[in-house]
C-alpha cells in the first residue's frame, strides 16, 4: 500500500533540549534539521542573568543549603549558564568544588545522608553531557566513571565509600564545562535563527521581483450571499450558502457540496469552522477544491506544528482545528489543495512533481543551488522538497501569499514560480474529466510511490 502524506507545518513549536537524546529527531518541517543542527529547549536565550539571584543561590550553597540546587532550570541554556557561573564562583570562594564540599559536609555530620543523596542526584543531572566520537579515550573514560558515579548515587543502598573511588571533578573539567559551553553557544545561534526566521515571515512579497506574477484579486458584493471576484483578467461569481459554495466561471459551474465533502466531520461546530476556512479561499482554489478533493477531515492537536495535511493515497485533507485561527491557516488549506492538484492527471501524467516533470525539476533544482551555503533561516518551507515547492508556488500564485515561503520564493525562485504559473494555466484549461485525482485510476497509482527530491 502506498501512503504519502504532505503537511504544512509552521516553525513555532517549542524547541527541545539538547540533553534529551530523542530531541535530535525533528519533524521534516523544521528549517533547522537540514544541517543537522541540534535543537535546544529554550527559545528565549537571553543571557541577562539575574546577578543578585545568582549570588543569593551561591551564598545558600556556601552555607550548606543544597536544596537550592532544585531551583536551577538546568535543561535550559540560562540554567546551564547559571550552573557554570555558580560552580566556578563556589570553587573560587571556598577552594573546593561543590561536589567535594557536599561530601565533606555529610562526613562532618552537618547534612543527612538523604539530603546528600537527593542533592547529589540533582548535581549529577545538571553535570551530565555525553562526549562525542571525536573525543579522546581519556574523555570517554571520565564519562564512564561518571556513569558509575551516577549508579552509586541512585542506588537504594547508597554507599559513600564507593564514591571516593571515582573522580567527579575530572569529569566536570573534561566534559561538563566544555559541553555546557557548547550547548549555550548553540542555543544562542538557534535563537538568532528563530528571530531571523520570524522576521522573514513578515516579508512583503508584493514589493519583490516576482510581484508581477502575483494575482490581483478584487471582490464586489452583489447580494448578501454572492460576490463577483475579479482574479487578474478572469471574473468569477461565488455564491455562499450553508450547504454549498457555487462558483461560476463563464458558463461553467463548480459546486462544493459540504454534505459530501464534510461527511466525515460529526461535530457541527467543527463543520462550521471548516466552512469558514473554505470561505477564505480564492475562486480558482475553490474550483480546484471542487474538482480535485473528495473529503476533508479534522483533528485537534494543539501540540502539533502541523496546520493541515494531504493524504495522497486517499485524496483526503485533514485540518488541525487547533490552528484554525492562526494567520497562516487558510493559506495552509490552499497549500494542501495545491498538493491535490499536483496529484491530478495532466495529459497522461500528473501535474508537476509526481509525473516527474523534468522541466519543473530542472528549473527548481537550478534555482535551489543559489541557496548553497546560505543560512538555515532563509530556507523556508518550500525548499523542503519539490513537492512542497510546487504546493507553496501554487498557494502564492492563487492566494497572493504562500503559507510560509514568500521570502525564499521571491528571492531565489522567480523562474520556478513563473513555470508553475504556466503549468497551472494549462491545467485549468483542461476539461474537468481530464483533471482528476490520479489515484482514482489504479493503473496510475504506482506513480505516487516515487518521491522526488532535490
Ligand atoms: Zn505540503
Your description of this structure?
- This protein is α+β, with helices and mostly antiparallel strands.
- The chain folds into two domains: 40-200, no CATH class; 205-449, Collagenase (Catalytic Domain) (3-Layer(aba) Sandwich), CATH 3.40.390.
- 44% of the residues lie in helices and 13% in strands.
- The chain has a five-stranded antiparallel beta sheet with strand order 2-3-4-5-6. A four-stranded mixed beta sheet has the order 1-8-9-7, covered by helices on one side. Strands 10-11 form a two-stranded antiparallel ribbon.
- Helix 3 packs antiparallel against helix 4, helix 11 (329-342) crosses helix 13 (386-399) and helix 13 (386-399) crosses helix 15.
- The longest helix has 33 residues, at 168-200.
- The protein starts with a strand and ends in a 9-residue tail after the last helix.
- It binds zinc ion.
- Zinc ion binds at residues 6-8, 335, 339, 388, 391.
Q: Hetero groups bound? A: zinc ion
What's the alpha carbon Rg, rounded to whole Å?
A: 29 Å
Q: Estimate the global geometry from the Cα principal axes.
A: elongated
- Integer average pLDDT: 85
Percent helix, as a range, is 40-55%
For the record, the count of structural domains works out to 2
Cα separation of the termini: 25 Å
Order of helices and strands: EHHHHHHHEEEEEHHHEEEHEEHHHHH
Structure summary, number of beta strands? 11
What is the assembly state of the chains in this entry? single chain
Order of strands across the main sheet: 2-3-4-5-6
Count of helices? 16
CATH topology of the largest domain: Collagenase (Catalytic Domain)
Main sheet?
Answer: 5 strands, antiparallel
As a percent range, the share of strand residues is: 5-15%
CATH architecture designation of the largest domain:
3-Layer(aba) Sandwich
Given helix and strand content, the structural type is alpha+beta
- Which residue ranges are poorly predicted, with pLDDT under 50 across at least 5 consecutive positions? 9-48
CATH class of the largest domain: Alpha Beta
Amino acid at each position: 500500500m502506498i501512503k504519502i502524506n504532505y503537511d504544512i507545518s509552521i516553525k513555532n513549536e517549542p524547541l527541545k533540549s539538547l540533553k534529551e537524546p530523542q530531541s535530535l529527531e525533528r519533524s521534516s518541517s523544521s528549517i533547522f534539521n537540514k544541517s543537522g543542527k541540534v535543537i535546544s529547549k529554550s527559545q528565549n536565550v537571553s543571557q541577562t542573568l539575574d546577578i543578585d539571584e545568582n549570588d543569593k543561590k551561591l551564598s545558600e550553597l556556601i552555607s550548606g543549603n543544597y536544596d537550592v540546587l532544585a531551583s536551577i532550570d538546568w535543561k535550559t541554556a540560562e540554567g546551564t549558564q547559571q550552573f557554570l557561573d555558580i560552580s566556578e564562583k563556589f570553587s573560587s570562594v571556598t577552594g573546593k568544588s561543590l561536589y567535594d564540599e557536599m561530601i565533606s559536609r555529610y562526613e562532618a555530620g552537618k547534612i543527612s545522608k538523604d539530603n546528600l543523596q537527593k542533592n547529589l542526584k540533582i548535581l549529577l543531572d545538571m553535570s551530565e553531557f555525553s562526549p562525542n566520537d571525536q573525543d579522546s579515550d581519556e574523555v570517554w573514560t571520565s564519562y564512564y566513571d561518571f556513569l558509575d558515579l551516577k549508579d552509586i548515587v541512585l542506588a537504594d543502598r547508597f554507599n559513600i565509600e564507593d564514591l571516593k573511588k571515582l573522580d567527579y571533578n575530572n569529569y566536570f573539567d573534561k566534559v561538563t564545562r566544555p559541553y555546557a559551553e557548547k550547548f549555550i553557544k548553540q542555543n544562542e545561534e538557534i535563537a538568532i535563527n528563530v528571530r531571523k526566521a520570524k522576521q522573514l515571515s513578515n516579508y512583503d512579497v508584493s514589493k519583490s521581483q516576482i510581484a508581477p506574477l502575483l494575482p490581483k484579486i478584487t471582490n464586489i458584493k452583489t447580494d448578501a450571499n454572492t460576490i463577483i471576484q475579479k482574479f487578474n483578467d478572469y471574473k468569477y461569481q461565488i455564491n455562499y450558502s450553508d450547504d454549498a459554495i457555487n462558483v461560476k466561471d463563464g458558463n461553467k459551474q463548480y459546486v462544493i457540496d459540504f454534505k459530501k465533502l464534510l461527511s466525515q466531520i460529526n461535530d457541527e461546530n467543527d463543520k462550521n469552522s471548516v466552512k469558514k476556512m473554505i470561505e477564505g479561499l480564492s475562486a480558482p482554489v475553490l474550483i480546484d477544491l471542487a474538482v480535485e478533493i473528495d473529503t476533508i477531515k479534522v483533528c485537534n492537536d494543539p501540540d502539533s506544528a502541523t496546520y493541515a495535511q494531504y493524504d495522497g493515497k486517499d485524496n483526503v485533507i485533514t485540518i488541525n482545528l487547533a490552528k484554525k485561527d492562526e494567520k497562516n491557516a487558510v493559506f495552509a488549506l490552499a497549500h494542501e489543495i495545491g498538493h491535490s492538484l499536483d496529484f491530478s492527471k495532466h495529459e497522461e501524467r500528473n501535474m508537476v512533481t509526481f509525473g516527474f516533470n523534468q522541466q519543473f525539476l530542472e528549473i527548481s533544482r537550478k534555482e535551489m543551488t543559489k541557496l548553497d551555503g546560505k543560512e538555515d533561516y532563509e530556507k523556508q518551507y518550500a525548499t523542503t522538497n519539490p513537492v512542497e515547492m510546487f504546493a507553496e508556488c501554487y498557494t502564492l500564485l492563487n492566494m497572493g501569499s504562500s503559507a510560509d515561503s514568500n521570502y525564499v520564493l521571491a528571492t531565489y525562485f522567480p523562474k520556478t514560480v513563473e513555470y508553475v504559473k504556466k503549468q497551472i494555466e494549462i491545467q485549468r484549461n483542461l476539461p474537468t474529466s481530464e483533471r482528476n485525482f490520479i489515484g482514482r485510476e489504479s493503473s496510475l497509482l504506482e506513480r505516487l510511490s516515487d518521491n522526488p527530491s532535490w
